[in-house]
Structure formats: C-alpha cells, structure tokens
Fold:
Amino acid sequence: MAQIATIAGLAIAGVSAYNQAQQQRQRRAETRVQQQAAREHQIAQQQVITTQAAAQQRARQEVLARTIAATRARLAAGGISPDEGSAAALTAGMVADAAQDQAESTELLRTRLAAGRPSLLTANGDFQGFVRATQSFGAIARNLLD
Structure:
C-alpha cells in the first residue's frame, strides 16, 4: 500500500509539474502577443505623428506663401518694389523665420520618434520613470523633514 501512495504522489507531482510548465508556456505566449500588439500600436502612433507633422508643415508653408504674397502686394500698392531693398529683406526674414520654425519642429519630431513614445504620458514598459519619480519624491520628503 505504501508503494501505491508513493507512486500516486509521484504521479501527482508529475501532473503538477506538467501543469506548471503549460501555464508558463501560456504566459509566455500571452506576453508575446501583448508585446506584438504594443509594437503595432506604437508603429501606428508614430505614423499618426508623422502624418500630423507633415500636415502642419504644409499648413505653415501655405500661411507663409499667403503672408509673403499679401506683403508683396501691399508694398507694390504703396509704390515700393517688393524685390528690392527693405522689402526684399522683409520677405527674406519671413522665409528665414519659417525655416527656423520648421527646423525646430523637425527636431522635435525626430526626438519624439527616437524616444519611441509619442508622448510622455504614454507608458513604455520601463520602470526608470517610476524609480526617478520615487527618488525625487524621497528627496523632497527628506528636505521637508530637515
């Protein structure tokens, strides 16, 4: 009878180990699916950000073109040649300002895409932000207590 109990115990242990292995495989599979979904979501968000940036760039270019055209028309109506002197400097300044704004916008877009997060509010699965926040909170609490 003791041998049957030992065999039954071994069988139960074997079944238990098998079930644990199955559960681990299932968890790994679920994790892979979640990671894939997160990657696809991130790619979609990056595409949205890129599309928005392109639309903003087109809108800025259109506003710049209209502003320059209106300025040139006003100058020409006032009898000033829009292609010479201060009028040319004025339109060149507008173009330079627009180019600077575009460069800053492009750099911001690159930074957001390189970070892999379209927003600081979007979780990236990294605990570094939490750790830094906790350390900062601890430092603030220590300073208040001192």
